[in-house]
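Weekly sync, protein design subgroup
Attendees: M.S., D.O., the rotation student, P.L. (late)

Item 1: inverse folding check
M.S. brought a backbone from last month's batch and wanted to see whether the design step gives back something sensible before we order anything. D.O. pointed out we never logged the input encoding, so this time it goes straight into the notes. Structure tokens as presented (259 positions):
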């Protein structure tokens, strides 16, 4: 009798082991059918680093190529001496355009800073070479400031246009404007200066309402025309057309004189 019980226990163990092996095989088959996507999420990996673009070298490299220094330098243009620093790099075909800020060392009220433009090209050895330099080309603002704000627009001309804004206050009247410079591969071209803002609030002594205007360049037709919408004390629009090398207003301007 004891032997029979022992045989029964052994038989039950064999059955349980067989059942376990069967379940294990079935689970393994299901995991194989799911494939790798059934696995739980692994640790997040950083995105692969993008290779550096030949069209956009580090700005310090471009600035050093032009001025021999990584971030700041001095430049003299005519009677003006500027403190120069790098602002941006813009691609222009196979050229690179380094835009620099040139603040006038003489920061008098009537002294203007400027934005500088420099053309560079990649050499066969992988370095940079200067093609042309215009360190004080684009007029800026008063008190020696290079700019009150600038942008590059690609809807005004066949080539990018650098729009540099500046301003001046004298005898209580404040004026602001934008200088337009087309970045032509053959060399930058000044396309004109247009008035943007006006305020005589500082000149009023009798309590009357000031005249204030602020404009923005809109509705461009590349290489042909654009309009400036003005708002403030008055609302009106003026149209500028390209005549020869520059843009001029159509008809008599309604923008206040004195700027």
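Designed sequence read out in the meeting:
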């Amino acid at each position: 009798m004891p032997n029979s019980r022992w045989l029964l226990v052994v038989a039950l163990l064999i059955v349980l082991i067989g059942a376990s092996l069967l379940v294990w095989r079935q689970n393994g088959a299901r995991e194989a059918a799911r494939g790798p996507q059934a696995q739980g999420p692994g640790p997040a990996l950083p995105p692969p680093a993008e290779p550096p673009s030949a069209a956009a070298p580090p700005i310090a490299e471009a600035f050093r190529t032009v001025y021999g220094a990584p971030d700041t330098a001095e430049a003299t243009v005519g009677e003006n001496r500027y403190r120069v620093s790098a602002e941006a790099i813009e691609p222009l075909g196979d050229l690179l355009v380094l835009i620099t800020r040139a603040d006038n060392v003489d920061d008098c009220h009537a002294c203007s800073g400027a934005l500088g433009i420099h053309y560079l090209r990649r050499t066969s050895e992988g370095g940079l070479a200067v093609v042309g330099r215009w360190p004080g080309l684009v007029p800026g603002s008063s008190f020696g400031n290079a700019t009150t704000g600038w942008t590059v627009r690609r809807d005004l001309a066949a080539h990018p246009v650098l729009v540099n804004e500046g301003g001046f206050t004298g005898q209580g009247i404040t004026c602001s404007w934008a200088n337009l410079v087309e970045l032509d591969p053959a060399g930058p071209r000044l396309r004109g200066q247009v008035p943007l803002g006006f305020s005589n609030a500082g000149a009023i002594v009798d309590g009357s309402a000031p005249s204030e205007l602020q404009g923005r360049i809109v509705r461009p037709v590349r290489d042909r025309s654009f309009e400036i919408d003005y708002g403030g004390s008055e609302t009106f629009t003026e149209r500028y057309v390209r005549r020869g090398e520059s843009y001029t207003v159509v008809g008599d301007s309604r923008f206040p004189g004195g700027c």
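Discussion: The longest helix spans residues 2-34. The chain is about 15% helix and 45% strand.
Action: P.L. to compare against the previous round before Friday.
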